[in-house]
């Protein structure tokens, strides 16, 4: 008699948790706050929102693109809207665990509303992610953004350029592309190609 093993009975691989609970594509969204380090006193915390897409190269590394909308301001002086388009390389330190720290760095375009002013910037940050259910993770992160301009706050003063911090809390929704789904369903596997045979 021939018995076939189910996929759940297969031998675990180093990335089995990642394949079961995460995936190679991610839609990400967050809300939080942003604060500037500029030339005026008394900076205030403004709104911050983010939406983006991540593509994993392997369980430990992904490349991601995010659109970010936020306000930067100073008490009794100004509160201005900005947006940024960021590209990052991100490292997930423990992809095969439900709880994992991550770090990222990259470059972006920072622009005021209606693109009245735009500047190149660089950013880096870190955070934590927790998988609450299959394909869905919660994340908490912060990033530091250094803009190659001293006019983000509208005032040019001193020798250093402007910079700002952002803190966000959000979700990661993981999914696989159709090609990967078809391969996992119809493609040959070690289990399917090596049935267990018992002779009575």
Termini Cα gap: 7 Å
Judging by the overall fold, what is the CATH architecture? Beta Barrel
Give me the Rg, rounded: 22 Å
The number of domains: 1
Description of the molecule:
The protein is built from 3 helices and 11 strands. The protein has 200 residues and is mainly beta. It is elongated and about 50 Å long. The chain has a single domain (2-197), classed as Beta Barrel (Porin). The termini are close together. Strand 6 (78-92) and strand 7 form a beta hairpin. The longest helix is centred in the C-terminal third of the chain and has 9 residues, at 178-186. Strands 2-4-5-6-7-8-9-10 form an 8-stranded antiparallel barrel. A two-stranded antiparallel sheet has the order 1-11.
Question: Can you lay out the helices and strands and say which pair or pack?
Answer:
Elements: E1 2-3, H1 16-21, E2 25-37, E3 43-44, E4 46-58, E5 61-74, E6 78-92, E7 99-112, E8 118-133, E9 136-147, E10 163-175, H2 178-186, H3 190-193, E11 196-197
Antiparallel strand pairs: 1-11, 2-4, 2-10, 3-5, 4-5, 5-6, 6-7, 7-8, 8-9, 9-10
């Amino acid at each position: 008699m021939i018995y076939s093993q189910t996929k759940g009975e297969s031998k675990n691989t180093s990335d089995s948790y990642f394949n079961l609970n995460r995936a190679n594509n991610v839609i990400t969204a967050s809300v939080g706050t942003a604060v500037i380090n500029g030339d005026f006193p008394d900076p205030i915390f403004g709104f911050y929102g983010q939406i983006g897409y991540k593509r994993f190269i392997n369980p430990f590394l992904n490349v991601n693109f995010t659109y970010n909308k936020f306000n930067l301001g100073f008490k009794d002086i100004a509160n201005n809207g900005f947006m940024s388009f960021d590209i990052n390389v991100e490292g997930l330190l423990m992809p095969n665990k439900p709880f994992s720290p991550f770090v990222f760095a990259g470059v972006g375009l920072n622009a005021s509303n209606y693109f009245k002013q735009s500047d190149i910037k660089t950013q880096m940050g870190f955070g934590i992610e927790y998988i609450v259910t299959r394909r869905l993770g919660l994340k908490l992160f912060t990033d530091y953004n250094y803009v190659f301009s001293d006019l983000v706050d509208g005032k040019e003063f001193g020798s250093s350029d402007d910079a700002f911090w952002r803190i966000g809390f959000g979700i990661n929704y993981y999914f696989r592309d159709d090609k990967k789904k078809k391969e996992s369903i119809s493609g040959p596997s070690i289990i399917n190609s090596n049935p267990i045979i018992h002779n009575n």
